[in-house]
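Re: the multi-chain job from yesterday

Posting the exact lines I submitted so nobody has to dig through the queue logs.
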Amino acid sequence: MRVATIAVHTFKESVRQKVLYNLVAFALLLIGASVLFGSISVGVEQIILITLGLTSISAFGLLIAIFIGIDLVSKEIEHRTIYNILSKPVTRMEFILGKYLGLLLTLLVNTAIMTAGFYAALFYQKRSLGLRDLVFLGAVYFILLQLAIVVGVAVVFSCISTPVLSAVYTFCIYVIGNFSAGLRAFGQGTQSALLGTVSDALYYTLPNFADFNVISQVAHSQSIPGYLWIGNSCYALLYITILLGLAILIFEEREFR
Amino acid sequence: MLALETIELTKNYRLGFWRNRVKRALDRLNLRVEAGEVFGLLGPNGAGKTTTLKLLFRLIFPTSGTARILGKPLDDLSVRSRVAYLPENPAFYDHLTAQEFLIYVTSLFGLPAAEQRRRPAELIDQLGLSSSRNIPLRKFSKGMIQRLGIAQALINDPDVVFLDEPMSGLDPIGRREVREVILRLKERRKTVFFSTHILSDAETLCDRVAVLNHGGLQGCGELNNILRMGVSSTELVLEGPSPEVMTELVPHVSSVIRTGERVRLEIPEESDVQRALEIILRGRTKLISVNPVKRSLEDYFLQKVGATE
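And the result, structure tokens for all chains:
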């Protein structure tokens, strides 16, 4: 119950932030503009719209996740509002979970708005929407799973670092997560055993987002394999659990001088 | 029952780049606060008052020692439903109004829905914030923030209230309002534990006080006993005494202060007071007042703090 209270409060606080509206507005603008970009190349209008539209949702969702995620805990500590909350019958675990779920709710709502804009642009271009267009929701779902992991990373860093450093680290981990397979291949391809070990360690510990990016597939009218639905969902759930567990462990020991 | 008990409560901070320097912020604090009393924790800046309060609410963790609130250990979350904390210079969510913030706080206690609506409205009225209930907190003055802080501290009708420098930064009207809140809590037999360096407030409100300095407890006792420790002198105020009367009085007094027609005399020895009164009456001098000059809490505080400087 207290987790839900904190989550709702976090959501209400997040949606009052002006940066959120700017980001969503830019995303919708870009999605709308992708209709124009598509008209430049005949025959690939839809592919361009879908690719650009879904990539915009992913990119702006990432910015929202980072900008709001890094402040989730650190802002409460810096402004000392956390004293009022932790002096109530609220455990530190409930606080972290509430904060995380609140931001997740914010991301869900904003992604829904951007997805609605995407479908509006698609309808404008195609003049009709069918059941086959529901496949794009799958891509959005995987984007959301990715963002849920990114928020978890942001929450961990928010517990231990300043907002600027948290943003940098979170972004770096997101980038590494999208190129981790290449990183591992690079490490294994070198002569150095150390480099190979390090790249392997990074591959297995840092989040691996390779399988979450199905934008290209759905843009080319390919369906999403069934194993990806289950695999990505379980992976995200496991990773988020580990991240939140880590955040809670760190936060339990944190002192507020 | 004891509202609060600390046993050898100690807090060290590790300082320096390599965290190899140790600063002892609180040194083996032993305190017992009875239920229903108003207890003042006094001390200069940096004495360890805020450290003590933060330890009690596990915002920081003790290096050693323990504490119990209402007989329960500090990590027992159930006790938080019966206590309240107002930090020094409290900060709240700027974007919320007073009503919204108090409703949020109420919901953290899991109170019934009807209480979640009634209690904030009641406290807003009690603390004189009625006209500001729907104004965002970023527009609140210092005094209003402090009153809101007290409102959020009282939202669950706590048995024990911990206040860290509750008068800090308030004007005289604000300080009187906070004093009245504390007195009302006392009438309702609530325990109030507050830290302050404003001794006049402690002297007005407290049943018992403790003095901290450099993290160590310098003294603790009932206020009445502390103030009763020696009537240091007696003050007599006369109007228009004749030179002959003054000549007779001078050997018995330690100071003479003239303000227009009035003369203030300080007689250090209790045994000389009677003799002085006989002289005054024989000389038909107008006696305005006779007052014992009691030891003040400030004297006690300076004695205790000065001993460790």
